[in-house]
Amino acid sequence: MEISDIIVNGSGFDREYNFNNYALTLVFKNYETEKTVRANLRYYPAEKEWDLNPIFYEYSQAEKEEMIEQIINDDRFKSEFQATDNSLKI
Predict the structure, then answer these.
(1) Helices marked H in the chain — which ranges?
(2) Cα distances (Å, whole numbers) of residue 7 to 13, 48, 52
(3) Which residues contact 25 (CB under 8 A, 6 or more apart)?
(4) How far apart are CA 27 and CA 11, in angstroms?
(5) What is the pTM of this model?
(6) What confidence category does residue 80 fall into, taking pLDDT thresholds of 50, 70 and 90?
(7) Would residue 23 count as lying in a domain?
(8) How confident is the model at residue 87 (pLDDT cuts 50, 70, 90)?
(9) Taking Cα atoms as reference points, which of 4, 8, 3 lies closest to residue 76?
(10) CB 59, CB 18: distance < 8 Å
């Protein structure tokens, strides 16, 4: 599942549960069709773990892991992530 565009709509740190939350818009293109998916990507610094929660769509764990890899390797996402107090560890 190839993501053609990643838009970071906002980010914030949840002090109560200790994670960074990134509000994303993911765009998938397949031939002539385009699918837009809103999602929340969470990063737990203590565990160095990522979790992706697409809104209104269901994906398998393997699909989510593949999408997380694409997102965290995207240059625009990296610049947003590195603007916080964390260092990007893939």
Answers:
(1) 61-72, 75-82
(2) 18, 22, 15
(3) 5, 6, 7, 9, 36, 37, 38, 39
(4) 18
(5) 0.80
(6) confident
(7) yes
(8) very low
(9) 8
(10) no
What letter represents residue 4's amino acid? S
What pLDDT, on a 0 to 100 scale, did the predictor assign at position 1?
67
Give the Cα separation of 4 and 34 in Å (integer): 9
Is residue 90 situated within a structural domain? no
| Number of domains composing the chain | 1
In a domain, 88, yes or no: no
In the block, tokens 């993911």 appear at 26
* Domain of residue 7, residue span: 3-82
The pLDDT tens digits of the residues spanning 19-60 come to 999 999 999 988 888 999 999 999 999 999 999 998 888 899
Question: How far from 90 is each of 4, 33, 57, CA to CA, in Å?
Answer: 20, 31, 25
Residue at 81: amino acid letter? F
**Predicted pLDDT at 31:** 83
Residue type, 7: I
